[in-house]
Automatic annotation (TrEMBL):
GO terms for molecular function: ABC-type transporter activity. Keywords: Membrane, Transmembrane, Transmembrane helix. It is found in: Membrane. Residues 1-13 have a biased composition (Polar residues). It comes from Bogoriella caseilytica. It is a multi-pass membrane protein. Residues 1-28 are annotated as: Disordered. This is ABC-2 type transport system permease protein.
Length: 414
């Protein structure tokens, strides 16, 4: 007996039903459903005017901050100091040698201590340098600039030491012979710790911004599709796990591209500042940051997708996101502020090492095998999280009406 022939409508209904019931059995002619979803996610973002404006504004802020910093560093600071006589004038002028390379001290000889103090009160001078017997006084209105204070303190000390040495019938060199302390580091790093801290803070900020912004985008997108039941329609044509992978891959590509744009802008801006000499070691660490970021963000993006699938409303998403937010905050805080042993230990912790390891590389020489070992641990962690996320997402995304926990979602049959 021949098999009954189904009508085209019956065939489409049967295929759709089996696709939904089977957790997304592939019935679409598309060869790579996840790629279609990823391209759609990127297209939505790239046609969002607010998203484009946000990138342009951020790039402008990074470039503007770098240019402003370079301009401030290139400015010549002139400090006006009022004095009461020739001796004070000589010392004040000598203080210029202890200032920055381009900073200068302009001396006003007021003729008397009272006139010098009056010049400060009238705003004609930042400070007044006065000697009364053996005592030196630096008078300011409400404060004295720290650079000026330090320079004049050193100048007064040098002048006093020279005068005392002459009175004792000797010289300053003889008095200070053998008093110099030489610092010898067994593991010396040529990088400037201040520059390393600034660049490290930038890495931490970029990670935080991308992880929060794109993570919430993924979770909200999944939740909206679940609330308006669009996901049930998509599941008839696209395997459910491909929906998750498409969203994760699409947003990961956008996040990675955005980080590259911001990092390139910052590095380009550095070439117009005095920090251009340090750009070599910054580039090396920045390259490793990109690699660690790509792996770490991919894992976090998958988790964000699951959080959206387990929620039934926005309030559920806010409460369920606490664990992943804690990981993001920890990675950001350690990257921005940690140092020494804490930073070293954190550089071996999966996901947290996304910021900790590249920042650690800024301040010390890390063996390549340690970097690769930590990277391998991150890759393994990302693989396990993505597998877990796919299993939970496949079970939770079609469950509507109530929020699910991780254990509840894993008990749901696919």
């Amino acid at each position: 007996m021949s098999a009954p022939v189904q009508s085209p409508a019956e065939t489409r209904t049967s295929a759709a039903g089996s696709g939904a019931a089977g957790g997304g059995a592939h019935s679409s002619p598309v060869a790579r459903p996840w790629l279609t979803v990823a391209l759609r996610e990127m297209a939505v973002k790239l046609t969002d005017r607010n998203y484009i404006i946000g990138i342009v504004v951020t790039v402008a802020m990074i470039a503007g901050a770098s240019v402003f910093s370079a301009w401030m560093n290139s400015r010549t600071a002139e400090y006006v100091v009022a004095v009461a006589g020739a001796e004070e004038a000589t010392v004040a002028q000598a203080g210029e040698a202890f200032l920055g390379e381009d900073d200068v001290i302009a001396v006003i000889d007021s003729g008397s201590p009272e006139a010098a103090r009056q010049a400060v009160e009238d705003g004609e001078a930042e400070a007044a340098l006065i000697r009364d017997g053996q005592d030196w006084t630096l008078t300011g209105l409400s404060d004295v600039p720290e650079n000026l204070r330090a320079a004049l303190t050193q100048a007064v000390s040098a002048e006093t030491m020279a005068a005392n040495a002459a009175a004792a019938g000797t010289t300053v060199d003889e008095l200070t012979a053998g008093s110099e302390l030489t610092v010898d580091l067994l593991e010396s790093d040529s990088e400037d710790p201040f520059i390393a801290r600034i660049v490290g803070f930038a890495f931490a900020f970029l990670f935080y911004m991308a992880a929060i912004m794109f993570g919430m985008t993924i979770a909200t997108s999944v939740l909206e599709e679940k609330q308006n039941r669009v996901v049930e329609i998509l599941a008839t044509a696209v395997p459910i796990r491909h929906l998750l992978m498409g969203k994760v891959i699409g947003n990961s590509v956008l996040a990675f591209a955005q980080i590259i744009i911001f990092a390139a802008t910052g590095l380009l801006a550095l070439t117009f500042t005095d920090l251009v000499a340090d750009i070599g070691f910054i580039l090396t660490s920045a390259g490793w940051f990109m690699v660690f970021f790509a792996v770490g963000f991919f894992a976090l993006a998958a988790v964000w997708g699951v959080l959206g699938s387990m929620a039934s409303r926005t309030e559920d998403l806010n409460s369920n996101s606490t664990p992943v937010m804690m990981v993001i905050f920890l990675a950001t805080f350690i990257g921005a502020f940690a140092s020494g042993t804490i930073l070293t230990v954190a550089s071996y912790v999966p996901l947290v090492s996304t910021t900790a390891m590249p920042i650690r590389m800024l301040s010390e020489s890390v063996p390549l095998w340690q970097v690769l070992l930590v990277l391998a641990g991150n890759v393994l962690t990302a693989y396990l999280l993505v597998r877990l996320a796919a299993a939970v997402y496949q079970r939770a995304v079609l469950q509507s009406g109530t929020a699910l926990g991780w254990r509840q979602a894993l008990r749901v049959e696919t």
